Amino acid sequence: MRVIGIGPRAAAHAPAAHVPDLTGLTVAAAADGSILVTLHPRD
C-alpha cells in the first residue's frame, strides 16, 4: 500500500509522496470503481 502524506510535517514520516495540504490532491472515481488520486505538488 502506498501512503500519501498531507501536511507540513508529513514528509518526516517518509510517505511515498506528500503534499502541503488537501489543495494538492485531486480524487476521482474511475470507470472500473477504483479511486484515482492525482498529486499536484507546488513548485
Write a structural description.
The chain is mainly beta. The chain has strands at 4-6, 17-19, 25-29, 35-39. It is flat, with a radius of gyration of 11 Å.
Task: Give a brief rundown of this model.
The chain is mostly beta strands.
Features:
single chain, 43 residues, two-stranded parallel ribbon, two-stranded antiparallel sheet, 4 strands
SSE blueprint and pairings:
Layout: E1 4-6, E2 17-19, E3 25-29, E4 35-39
Parallel strand pairs: 1-2
Antiparallel strand pairs: 3-4
Secondary-structure element order, N to C: EEEE
Topology, number of strands: 4
Helix content, binned percent: under 10%
Distance between the termini: 26 Å
Q: Which structural class best describes the helix and strand composition?
A: mainly beta
Mean pLDDT: 89
Largest sheet: 2 strands, parallel
Gyration radius (Cα, Å) is 11 Å
User: Which runs of at least 5 residues are low in confidence (pLDDT < 50)?
Assistant: none
